[in-house]
Amino acid sequence: DNGTLCFAFDGDVYTLAPGGEPAKLEVRIAIDGLATLDEVVPVNSGFTELKLAPSGKEFAYVFRGEIFVSDMEGGITKRITNTPYQERSPSWSPDGRTLAYAAEVDQSWNVYTVSIEREEEPYFYASTLLKTETAVATDAEEYQPEFSPDGKEIAYLEDRVAVKILNLESKNTRLVLPADKNYSYADGDQYFQWSPDSKWLLVQFGQPER
Description:
By secondary structure, the chain is an all-beta fold. Helix content is 0%, strand content 44%. It is built from no helices and 17 strands. The strands form five sheets. The protein has a four-stranded antiparallel beta sheet with strand order 4-5-6-7, with no helix packed on it. Strands 8-9-10-11 form a four-stranded antiparallel beta sheet, with no helix packed on it. It has a four-stranded antiparallel beta sheet with strand order 12-13-14-15, with no helix packed on it. The protein is elongated and about 95 Å long.
C-alpha cells in the first residue's frame, strides 16, 4: 500500500522502497524433520521368502514389504506390488502366470492374486499389464497361501493355525484342519504342503494334551 516493491532474485526475497536500494530479507524456514525424503534403494540384498517360478527362469521374493520378480539371467527386476501395506508369502501357480500372496490391508491379513494379463507375455519380470484380485478377505486373518499343483485351489492359514482351502472356480472355502489341532507360538511357525496329485495336505498336527 505504500509503494514498496517485493520481488525474488536468484533464490532470495528483496524489498525495494520508492527511490531506495533493494534490501534482502532474512528468511528462516523451520522444519520438523518428519518429511519423507526420497531414496533410491537397490534391490540386491536383504530380501526374503524366495520362490522359484515353475519355468525356472524367474523368482519372486519380498523386499521391504513389497513383492518383486527377477529373471535368473539378465538381471531384470519388476516390482509386482506397490502399496502402503505389507505383503508376504508369494506362491506361484503351476503355469507361472499368477502369484498368490498375503497382504495386511487396513490391519487385516487377506489373500490376493496378481496375474499376467497379456497372453504374449510369459514372464512376470517382463510383463506390462498385471491384474490384481482379492481371493479371500474376511474379518479373520488369512495368510500363507499355497497353490495346489493342479492350479485349481489355494490352501492358506486362517487365524494363525486353521488350514482352509479356496476353490478358485467356485470361490468357496472349506476347513481341512481346525484351529484346535495346533497352537502357534510365533509368526510363521505353521507348516503345510500339497501332495503332487493335489489330493492331500501334509500338515503339522498337535496331539491333544492329556
